[in-house]
Amino acid sequence: MPPWLIALGGLTAALIAGVAVAFDPKLGIAFVAACAFVPLVFLSLPLALAAWIPIAWNEFSHVLGKAPLAGGLLLLMAWIGTRRARGTVVAADLSLRVARVVFVLLLVWVTLSISWASDRSHAWSEVVNWYFAGAVFLLVTTVATTPARARLVALAFLAGALASIVIGLTGSGLSTTADAIDLATRERFSGGAGDPNYLAAGLIAALALAAGLMPSTRDPLARLGLAGTVLALAVAMGATESRGGLVAALVAIVAGVALARERRAASAALAVVVVACSAIFLLLSPSGWERMTTFDAGGTGRTELWRVATSMWEDHPIAGVGIRGYEHESAAYVLKVGNLSFVENIAERPVVTHNVYLQQLAETGIVGLALLLVLFGACLVASQGAARRFQAAGDRAMAALARATTVAIIGMLTASFFISNSTDKRLWIVLALGPALLIAARSSSHPPAQPRLDSTER
Fold first, then answer.
1. CA–CA distance, 389 with 383 (Å, rounded to integer)
2. How confident is the prediction for the chain on average, in pLDDT?
3. Which of 11, 73, 159, 223 is 20 to 30 Å from 109 at the Cα level?
4. Cβ atoms of 120 and 114 closer than 8 Å
5. What is the residue range of 170's domain?
6. Closest CA to 143 of 80, 212, 58
């Protein structure tokens, strides 16, 4: 493009931004952000994906509005447009092939479940969320396929976690559309993730990835920044006062120490620092400490929701009640499951199951749950396969990141026992990092072949 045309476009955009800011500051800021993001999408899809991940981290915030959806759609369009330019990847391992096939089958099954759902309009909206999560999985597994890009995605995930903390500190966390995500969480720190328990699940994954990035960070200032990030994430973890997050964090710590190999002592030391930071914060907050150490205090009704989900599955074992059907069918099970202390969460103001596995089981039956579990397992196997390949190639830094990704997946999947986060973009970003790292490991050990010359070129 000629320079004068670029200058004219910049001047026009500046004028529009000035008018928009005068009319509505939020609109002006959104326009300026779009002016920065749209060219980035066309210049570098990996950088654009990294810029979008912090936005996806905070999709329930007042600050961002429809930006996560708009940015995701633009990324998907750019991905489609550059598919041929990326070419084919190296031959896939079994875990990669399983992940791809099972993911397609899962989306097909979830879509088919609309036909037997009681409320098809709500079912369609949930299926749209599933396809959006699928697009995120597709983007990460096909774009973050080199070591540098995988590190970039991990850093973007950390940036999203920090941005969520900042949004929470400014008091602009929850949007009105996210008020019903959890049961009673108004006085706990929720950041920009929409809910304290959802925030805690993401923070666990972010802490694991921060630990995995340490070996590849040589610059002293960068290492200091990572250390400060770990401390901030640990304190925010304590501020969520999430008991499900506590359980998931302990499981992730055990997994991290077990998988650390030659860095086991360093991993254990980091775990001690994280636990100490969270514990110190809770000790300074008596109500938070009481909540975390007394599991029957205040009661959230999760066990009753789980009983309803189990009973629902027993009546519909193969196909379930249809996607998004749990909330619409739960009232019919009030009398069937016996005495309930939190009946309003089932009959009067129905909420989700607060367990992704039981939610999937109740709504899509044993078929849907089996597909979901196989997909989770394939991503875990892929991340561990990547760690072995990087270790065999002598790339210990990337091997550490791959093992950290395994820990991040384990942590988020454990947290999923206490939240219904099946379409959480952060979950699918972390899951997709496993297959992406395996492709990166194979690509690194199999350099591209030189093109063959025909007779005329010879």
1. 10
2. 82
3. 73
4. yes
5. 44-84+94-125+141-306+337-443
6. 80
Residue for token pair 């429809």: 66
140-173 confidence digits (pLDDT tens):
998 998 999 999 999 999 999 999 998 888 765 4
In a domain, 252, yes or no: yes
Give the C-alpha separation, 371 to 74, whole Å.
29
Q: Which residue has the tokens 């697009």?
A: 135
For residue 155, being part of any structural domain is answered with yes
Long-range contacts of 47-53 (CB under 8 A, 24+ apart): 47/152, 48/75, 48/78, 49/75, 49/139, 49/140, 49/143, 49/144, 49/153, 49/156, 50/152, 50/153, 50/155, 50/156, 51/156, 53/153, 53/156, 53/157, 53/159, 53/160, 53/429
pLDDT for 206: 94
Structure tokens given for 166: 């900042």
- Asked if the structure places residue 453 within a domain, the reply is no
Q: Which secondary-structure segment (H or E) carries 151?
A: helix 147-169
Distance between CA atoms of residues 162 and 434, nearest Å: 22
Task: For tokens 């000790």, name the residue.
Answer: 283
Q: Could you please report the per-residue DSSP string of 16-53?
A: HHHHHHHH-HHHHHHHHHHHHHHHHHHH-HHHHHHHHH
Crossing angle, helix 264-283 and helix 286-293, to 10 degrees? 120
Number of structural domains (the chain) is 1
| Domain assignment present for 13 | no
Nearest to 152 by CA among 54, 231, 227: 54
Q: What average pLDDT does range 349-367 have in this prediction?
A: 91
Phi, psi of 129, deg, nearest 5: -60, -40
- The residue among 251, 13, 62 whose CA lies nearest residue 174 is 62
pTM: 0.86
What's the pLDDT tens digit per position in 106-118? 999 999 999 998 8
Q: Of 83-92, 117-126, 285-294, where does mean pLDDT reach its minimum?
A: 83-92
Give per-residue pLDDT as tens, 374-433.
999 999 999 999 999 999 988 989 999 999 999 999 999 999 999 998 999 999 999 999
pLDDT exceeds cutoff 70 at 87: no
Count CA atoms within 13 Å of residue 171 on its CB side: 0
